[in-house]
């Protein structure tokens, strides 16, 4: 059966959820072969195998951490040559997209970015994209070369399926460009202990209406009662009330949770671009005319400082 | 020695307008007014700041697109770029990211460069991959998604704030840099800038000037193909209540009914 390469996104050996989703997608197209770069393949291979990866091609070299993007492209290129896959799937992170694009160019292949779904088709994989701030849904194919597709989080469920997860060494020869951009230092983000924004089933966001960094505790309290991630609008981020890594929207993260709760957010097109595909949307805003209300399944016109704490109390009470 | 900076600027349909696809499934550019992609304003700003910090530097703005796309270059000239280049050719209609990067690379080589500055992503295609592709084509380092950038001593350094970590990057020139909207407010063109822009050189090139084979670009030359595009069905009108003291509890009731609590 045809093989499909899946690029593994991991943090120090911990495989991130979007990669496990990709293994589900890959099984629709063929047999998944995972490509793992960096240290810690032993533990990761077990997880990858438990989600359907028959083979795990692994390479470890200091270049992957010390230089930007290109060493990973060299490795994926080697993996494509070794396997001859029908498609290459890469998680749609900022780095994943760059790796995929450069790989595609080298292979003489087209690249599709930010797919929200991928299905097998007569002409090869068909990728669905949600474009123009989610106003349109397109379906596209790669018409030349091996399909290289980057896939967004939540495109498919994580499905445990036991496969061998057999680790094989991948030989990589780094090209001249590999050491072009040096990573001089790296500071890891401190975890908030809350779910990862793009992976969370529920996202609770605050905007300019939250009116101050200290008031974000109101948003966080609701998020914690629901086991949700915290998001913010760009207005709140630009004001310095919340970190940029929590920004939802065109230039922030795009999220697609089961439930999105927008508090004190007007619903500008650039914000909508990042949350419009959420399954259920609710909003609290004191302005009945706010455009966010055009999107909601349930909206409360009111002051968030009254509504949100009451909601939080009620959630806690109901959860016992 | 003078520092040659090229900034890539894209002309896009206004995101606040009603954007559509044309019948051939390319962006309908007639339906909505176009403008310089707002994210490329940050690129122009950083290009200008890098030039201002250097002893001797020149910023050239380049765009690829139909006749109107000239507007993107004009805006960059108004902001302070010294020269403009507009690549216009009917064969470009429907070009994908691979083709765009090919034409941009040829244009940048034609202009001559030590540094290419781009936005983090366009506001229409939003692929965010043209800078990386450009670096691959030009055979120079990519120093991308920077929220802070500086150039000194033949090197570019910057900070890339990623998903899981923040990285300090460094590369020797020539290089391709892309900047995010965290890199600093973009300036508004001054009256003097607007008047002065009219006198600045703005060169128009076609594919033959750049030695690009038209077969490798456009809808036919693309390595990807859109099969269909459908408008997202409008959301069914939701329930909206006014908070009269029970808004939070009412919302909780809704969430419970939906099994979120
Ligand atoms: C190129 C570009 C990229 C962008 N990218 C993003 C992005 O990624 N993400 C993003 O969010 N934005 C982005 N923006 C900015 C976007 O256009 C809006 O400016 C921003 O989303 C507004 O944030 P907001 O809704 O919090 O603020 P506002 O629009 O000011 O809205 C605040 C809302 O809070 C309500 N409010 C105030 N007080 C209360 C209260 N006590 N209780 C209840 N409601 C209250 C008000 O009625 C109002 O509706 C981008 C813009 C550009 C040009
Ligand atoms: C809705 C939509 C979806 C698309 N999906 C795909 C896809 O999946 N695969 C694919 O191959 N193509 C796709 N395309 C086509 C692609 O977006 C265009 O080819 C585009 O010109 C380049 O990509 P981008 O706009 O996404 O650029 P990005 O990679 O997002 O742009 C980054 C930067 O590159 C520079 N730049 C980009 N284009 C130009 C230009 N024309 N002139 C000057 N500078 C420029 C700018 O500095 C910009 O900030 C899509 C287009 C649309 C409208």
TrEMBL record, chain A:
One of its GO terms (biological process) is fatty acid beta-oxidation using acyl-CoA dehydrogenase. PROSITE patterns: ETF_ALPHA (PS00696). FAD binds at residues 208, 233-234, 247-251, 264-271, 285. The keyword Transport applies. It comes from the Bacteria. Residues 4-183 form the Electron transfer flavoprotein alpha/beta-subunit N-terminal domain. SMART domains: ETF. Binds 1 FAD per dimer. Its cofactor is FAD. InterPro entries: DHS-like_NAD/FAD-binding_dom, ETF_a/b_N, ETF_a/FixB, ETF_alpha_N, ETF_asu_C, ETF_asu_C_CS, Rossmann-like_a/b/a_fold. Keywords: Electron transport, FAD, Flavoprotein, Transport. One of its GO terms (molecular function) is flavin adenine dinucleotide binding. Belongs to the ETF alpha-subunit/FixB family. Heterodimer of an alpha and a beta subunit. The electron transfer flavoprotein serves as a specific electron acceptor for other dehydrogenases. It transfers the electrons to the main respiratory chain via ETF-ubiquinone oxidoreductase (ETF dehydrogenase). This is Putative electron transfer flavoprotein alpha subunit. It comes from Actinacidiphila reveromycinica. The lineage of its organism: Bacteria, Bacillati, Actinomycetota, Actinomycetes, Kitasatosporales.
UniProtKB/TrEMBL annotation, chain B:
One of its GO terms (molecular function) is electron transfer activity. It holds the Pfam family ETF. Its cofactor is FAD. The keyword Transcription does not apply. InterPro entries: ETF_a/b_N, ETF_b, ETF_beta_N, Rossmann-like_a/b/a_fold. Keywords: Electron transport, Transport. Residues 24-214 form the Electron transfer flavoprotein alpha/beta-subunit N-terminal domain. GO terms for cellular component: cytosol. The keyword Transport applies. It comes from the Bacteria. Belongs to the ETF beta-subunit/FixA family. PANTHER family: ELECTRON TRANSFER FLAVOPROTEIN BETA-SUBUNIT, ELECTRON TRANSFER FLAVOPROTEIN SUBUNIT BETA. The electron transfer flavoprotein serves as a specific electron acceptor for other dehydrogenases. It transfers the electrons to the main respiratory chain via ETF-ubiquinone oxidoreductase (ETF dehydrogenase). Heterodimer of an alpha and a beta subunit. This is Electron transfer flavoprotein subunit beta. It comes from Actinacidiphila reveromycinica. The lineage of its organism: Bacteria, Bacillati, Actinomycetota, Actinomycetes, Kitasatosporales.
